[in-house]
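Q: Hi! First time asking for a complex rather than a single chain. Here are the components, and I think there are two in total. Is that enough to go on?
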Amino acid sequence: MNELEIKGQMAKSASAFLAVASEADKNRALLAMADAIYDNTDYIIKINGGDIAAAKEIGLAEGFIDRLTLTKQRIGAISNGIRQVAELPDPVGTYVSRTKRPNGLEIDKVRVPLGVIGIIYESRPNVTADAAALCLKSGNAVILRGGKESIGTNLALVGIMQEALIKEGFPKGCINLVEDTSRETATALMRLNKYLDVIIPRGGAGLIRSVVENATVPAIETGTGNCHVFVDKYADLSMARDIVINAKTSRPSVCNAEEKLLVHCDIAERFLPAMLKSLHEYGVTVVGDQTVCGLDPEAAPAAEEDWYTEYLDLKIGIKVVDSIEDAIAHINKYGTRHSEAIVTENIPNSTKFLKEVDAAAVYVNASTRFTDGFEFGFGAEIGISTQKIHARGPMGLTELTTTKYLIHGNGQIRE
Amino acid sequence: MNELEIKGQMAKSASAFLAVASEADKNRALLAMADAIYDNTDYIIKINGGDIAAAKEIGLAEGFIDRLTLTKQRIGAISNGIRQVAELPDPVGTYVSRTKRPNGLEIDKVRVPLGVIGIIYESRPNVTADAAALCLKSGNAVILRGGKESIGTNLALVGIMQEALIKEGFPKGCINLVEDTSRETATALMRLNKYLDVIIPRGGAGLIRSVVENATVPAIETGTGNCHVFVDKYADLSMARDIVINAKTSRPSVCNAEEKLLVHCDIAERFLPAMLKSLHEYGVTVVGDQTVCGLDPEAAPAAEEDWYTEYLDLKIGIKVVDSIEDAIAHINKYGTRHSEAIVTENIPNSTKFLKEVDAAAVYVNASTRFTDGFEFGFGAEIGISTQKIHARGPMGLTELTTTKYLIHGNGQIRE
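A: Yes, that's all I need. Here is the structure of the assembled complex.
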């Protein structure tokens, strides 16, 4: 038996245990996991040091190394994150609806765990603990497949969490890590229908494409965000400037960051010069259409491909549009249906934008950066879905459950 | 451009129209479609006659021909079905939640159409009209791909519905039919990510397997039902007999029909002889384990493969189990997670069964035949989902929608 078969069986068996575990027991296990991670801080840092050294040796980028690195403070945050998950309400067992039919059948729709969840992600060890905690709280077993550069740290974290689980009487198979980090095994995980109920890729466009192309397990796409801010002719231009700067520069590497700025032609000459100056002050590289390049000698002409691109960097594409209709059409053509914003003081325009833009989150007069499980008040987040089925936008614990109809009768048969 | 590209573009464009269409306008279009179908009864019967003649000529089975056949009465029922869809409440625009965050952001979660839905189904022309009506009411454009033997009838029905739509000011692309009924084009439809938001296969196990294997568009699996009835040792045996006969024989060709009977060993000798006699009276063929074959000279031994098989016929597999735990383990191993029932007067056992059986619908003391959108009170049904993401069990109009977050701010930026 290969690794996936063994871990699939372990996860499947653990999922039956978790499906009927009480909230109190799950919280006890989570707190034990949080304690164990905290108590093993020094050990984790040591093991993580090996991963970091190897990553540096092969010359990986600074941002990559930063996401891979665990410090005492970051391990404390991971441990606290698990504690916070323990405090969140358990969605399992809650009623979605209760109906009594004319024939006397009582039909209850209740939340139940999905079962076994596969998660494929990059070399960010914090995701290992986060995802494990969210899956456990929602009654799901998990099979984790993290980036190969973090395998040492992930093995340490999962080993520590498994030991804590076993002490609390939970099966080890609640949390599983794929140790073979080859691409072939990642693809095999996407096709492990026998054991997996859903697969969630968390990562860049390449990973998402690979899942769409290869997965036979139902997948929830997350996290690609080519987000736009449209500055309407009725915008408060000072508010617009603050929103653009925040959306673009507060954390350019994340999926809810702004990638494109659309400006109504009627205010372009009034708005853009100061806006462009601000962007340059924040170190943002600009590509743009003819008008933008005419106003900004530093701007390069945008290629068609630019309008599709999620830079995840201090770079922005700017385009002047003739109307709100053009702005909406552009967003619906080039966007990734993640987060889109309009800045306007005009209610018909804000209503039109909210209604016609096809995205998980559509904003009026606020930064796109708020699309996030914590900012939305869910207390946690496993990712941001950019597809339409099952979940759309930030996914909290509820999105890690499905439903089941429980029907009570007293001998009803169908005519 | 090939057919799918043309129809994909038409559907995508129509979906933008439908997404903002009012409920009143959609109902007007639906009533016009219902009228047009009714008014063209003779024409439809004539065209359908051609499909039937061709199907008979190649010797297709009686049940197949029956499902393909439209009569005056059946066309009346199709027309009335569309009228009933017009009367159902429109889920689009309803609020799932409304939250005001401490920073003043107002976050509304509202229902919106999925966009463009692909439906692949067998040679059942009633599905053509049903699916078109449900998709239109829920604001979705649809691309239909029905069985090749019904292509004449489907073309007639879709042509009539499109003409009615156009008269009401709706784009023709709201309802599209794939005219090339080759397998290659069906597979291409499953991979039409550029235009489709979801694909729903309605059909047998072979079609579902093909979608799981080939689809890159998010899919909702429907309709495979290897459903069990477990007669517990605490069962009312007369009730058990009625439920088994109803679940097995009232309509054996549908997915919510019983395929397997599990009987607790303590009551097997008391229950089975009369039960087997009844089943034979209803013309049911029995395969079973050793105990069953010992009690019934007409029963054939069940092969391992039998326990996995959805017969969709007057045939049943019967097994005696040692305990409720064995019954649950058998169901979770061999079942298709559709509909499962226990007959018992013992509350701890019914609670255990409801909790531990992993299926869309779990029944206590009622026939599995009730798993159906109409019986559940949804007023309509596009299919019965046997997967866990997005929708589980009967899917009504709500399950043909997704959600969108609409966020109102007054200049909020993220720290």
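A: Residues 3-19 of chain A form the longest helix (17 residues). Let me know if you'd like any chain examined more closely.
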